[in-house]
Each structure stands twice: as C-alpha cells, then as structure tokens.
Amino acid sequence: MRNAIKWAALLLCVLMIAGLFTACGESKPASVDPIDTPLVQVPELPAPTPRPDLKPIELHEVTRSVFYAPQYVACSLGYFADEGLDVRITTSGGSDRAMTALLAGEADFALAGPETAVYVYNEGKADHPVMIAQITKRDGSFLIGRRENPDFTWEDLRGTSVIGGRNGGMPYMTLVWVLNEYGLVAGKDLEVIDSIQFNLMAGAFEGGTGDYVTLFEPTATEFQNAGKGFILTSIGLDSGNIPYTCYHVAPSTLTKDPGTVEAFLRAVYRAQQWLITATDEEIAVAMQPWFPDTSIESLTIVARSYRASDAWKTELEMFEEDYNRMLDVIEFNGLLTGRPPFGEIFDSTLARKVQG
User: Fold this and answer.
1) Is the CB of residue 97 less than 8 Å from the CB of residue 111?
2) Which of 6, 62, 110, 328 is most buried (most C-beta within 10 Å)?
3) Going by DSSP bridges, is the β-strand pair 55-61/245-249 parallel, antiparallel, or unpaired?
4) Are residues 255 and 335 part of one domain?
5) Cα separation of 217 and 331, whole Å?
6) Whether residue 277 is found in the same domain as residue 344
7) CB-based burial, 71-98: b 16+ in 10 Å, e otherwise
8) Average pLDDT of 320-340?
C-alpha cells in the first residue's frame, strides 16, 4: 500500500511537470541523410502551448540522454520560463551537426562536445564558437557486452571488437584513451569500430555487429532490461575528469545579447543545484517528459547510475586542468593540430557572475 501511494504521488508530480513543460519545447530531430537516419528515433513530443510572453531560443543538442539532466530539469521545472525563455530543443545526432547549426545561425545555443569547438578554432576561423558553461565532467557512456560478467576487467576486451563511436568524437577518443591506460592498443590488441554513426550504435550492436558497444543512458539500461546486453562498467569512472559536454554560442551572441545568455545560464545553474539534493526518483520524474518511452523505474536507475559515476557538474565553470586533460586525450588520438588558449575558447565571465 505504501509503495502504491508513493508511485501515485510520483505520477501526480509527472502531471504537474507536464504543465510546466509547455514553456520548453521539442523541435523535430534535425534532418539527416537517409544513410544516417537513426534506427531509434527520438520520440516526438506533443507541441507545446505557445508562450508569446517568452523569448524563443533554439537549442541544438548532440543527442538525447539523461546524461544532460540539468538541461531537462531546467525545462521541466520551469526554470527557463522563469527567466523569460522558451527553449526549443532539436536533437542533432552528433556534435558536428549541432555545431554546424550554430555556425549557420540555425541555433542560438549548441550543447555539444568541446572537442568540436577546438577543431573549429584550429581551422583558423575568426568567429569560432565560444564555450560558456559545462554540464558534464566525465564520459557518460557505459560498456555493454553480450554476456553478463560480474568479474569484468578491461583485459577481457583483448582480441574482441568494440563499437566505439565516430573517430574524432569524445566517446571514441576517451575509450581509446582508457584502453591504453589498461595496456590495450586499439587496432592491435582489439578492434575499435569507428565507422558507425553515434545514434546508430545501439541498432548496429543489436543487429550483431561487435562484441561490445558503448552506450549512453537511458539506452544502456533499456538494453539490459530487454536482455539485449549487459552493463559491464562505466567508461567515465576510468577516464577521469574531462569537460565532456558544454554549451556553445557564437561570439556575436555574447557581445550583442549577453542578457539572454546570462538568463539561460541562471536556469541551468539552478537546475544543477537542484540535482545535488534531489532524490533519484525526483530526478526520474523531472526527466519523464523528455523520455516518454522510458519508465519512471528505469529513469530512477539511470539517475542513480549517473550520480554514482559523478557525471554531472555542480557548477557552470570549466576548470583549465580538465580542459588540458581533454586536449591530451585528443592529442593522444592524433587529432590535435594546436592547443587553443583556454581563455580564448571558454568564456567564464557570465558563468562566474551567475554562480556569484
């Protein structure tokens, strides 16, 4: 009876959050070539009620994952609306696509891997994107195997194949870095498959490709619950602190409309602080509108998993030490043509102001 009352209360919270959700909307997934169309599309949410009193903001995210909990909390709990913003989210299906949308002026903000900003800077573009906040501090992917293995060690991967993501992306590069830390050389001691688009990895593994795959949540837990694979370890716990996912804006946005950027960051920071004390179940309820096909029970497990791996940042600011570690990872993978000065690629002015 007590459990029934508890879940009834959670359901009530979901319904209340659904009302707030009208101030934060879902755009359709970004258009992609047929060959890159995800096997599992991001669920299309109901069109939100128009809010003419709020300023429309276009945000392109790299993918849909509970890994980015602060963003969805800021939407679901009405924090963006409190700041006068109507944030519309488009799932791009890759950091490169999110960044392309930002550079093309199709997005006001891009939530993407910081490595993309490094690549653009090193191309010599004067109007290179600027990072303004960091919301995840380590790799958010989990290693999935075809068989349960409670005694898993990285040495078990020797002589096998792993679907690791797109070469040049942080999931792939961090995996190769971690493998090396454990004495395994990609391409020599094992095969790390880098030819599969990020949002096609789960489908490829399910279809029989690879002995292992790295997946974000909630896909990893959904895979395990469906008996399609088994979670063996967190990549992030072995990778150390790396600025993994950041908000990017065009330089012109910072100079012409700093008030909007500051309002955006206030909402995100408020969500970060809420996550510190929220229960796993409360986080699950706040996530529900963004993951309508995932149960509260599964989202609770996912929240617990990311909390255990210390994945979420509790502040907006990026630390230079972590930034340099990221550059080391990129350099190790042979893709770093220069080390952009920290102060030129991350602007901490507004983050520090918001944090007080």
Assistant:
1) no
2) 110
3) unpaired
4) yes
5) 27
6) yes
7) bbbbbbbbbbbebbbbbbbbbbbbbbbb
8) 95
The pLDDT score that the predictor gives to residue 50 is 60
Sign of CA dihedral 157, 332, 66, 209: negative
Q: Is 215 helix (H, G, I), strand (E, B) or coil?
A: strand
CB contact at 8 A, 141 and 235: yes
- Could you list the beta-strand ranges (E) of 208-260: 212-215, 230-234, 245-249
| 250 and 201, same domain (yes or no) | no
Domain of 78?
Answer: 2-138+242-355
Same domain membership, residue 153 and residue 72 = no
Contacts of 108 (CB under 8 A, 6+ apart): 57, 58, 59, 249, 253, 260
Asked whether residue 256 falls in the same domain as residue 155, the answer is: no
Same domain, 346 and 283: yes
Which pLDDT band, with edges at 50, 70 and 90, does 23 fall under? low
- The number of folded domains in the chain is 2
pLDDT in tens, 170-198: 889 999 999 999 999 999 999 999 999 87
Same domain assignment for residues 304 and 268 = yes
Residue 327 φ/ψ region, left for φ over 0, alpha for ψ in the -120 to 50 degree band, beta for the rest: alpha
> What is the three-class DSSP state of 213?
strand
Identify the CA nearest to 87 among candidates 1, 15, 12, 26: 26
**What's the pTM value of the predicted model, to 2 decimals?**
0.83
> What CATH number does the domain containing 108 carry?
3.40.190.10
Of all helices (H) and strands (E), which one includes residue 143? strand 142-145
* Residue 55 near residue 86, CB atoms below 8 Å: yes
Element (H, E) at 173: helix 170-181
Query: Looking up tokens 């429309």, which residue turns up?
Result: 56
How many CB atoms lie under 10 A from the CB of residue 343? 9
pLDDT tens-digit map of 28-84? 444 332 223 233 334 444 445 667 789 999 999 998 989 999 999 999 999 999 999
Q: What is the phi-psi region of residue 54: left when phi exceeds 0, alpha when psi lies from -120 to 50, beta otherwise?
A: beta
Which tokens is 179 given? 């493998």
